[in-house]
Please model this.
Amino acid sequence: MTRPRLRHLAFVVRDARRMAEFYRTHFGMELFHTDPDGSHFVTDGYLNLALIQQQLSGDVPTGFNHFGFEVPAVAPVAESLAEAGVPRPVLRGGDRPFAEYRAIDPEGNWFDLSEHGFLPPAARDDAGSVHSGPEGQR
Model:
């Protein structure tokens, strides 16, 4: 990989299970992960779609949330972003297995940066292919 690749889109949705089933049924996407909060993650084998379960206790509305780039190395991208006058990417907290860093563009749009890609390590082989288990879950 010689340049960053857009590999991940995320939407906050009211019913993540139903949305995942929609994309599985109508577009052949595979479910590769389900979070304890009900968020579902599907892929077409190249681009991943995170269907983030909306939380009634939160203040995040439904709709587009963020996107993510797979990069060869985060450090040079972070330096380039800092030189462009935007904040340096920050390490994402929690137990997210997908993206290591969160950043913002000049207009304040969130995006993720990942050196290992947007599938959990157990869902990928050395070539980056998706492995489906029962129901496509990991």
Q: What stands out?
A: The first strand starts at residue 5 and ends at 13. The helical segments are 16-27, 74-83. Residues 16-27 form the longest helix (12 residues). The two ends are 26 Å apart (CA to CA).
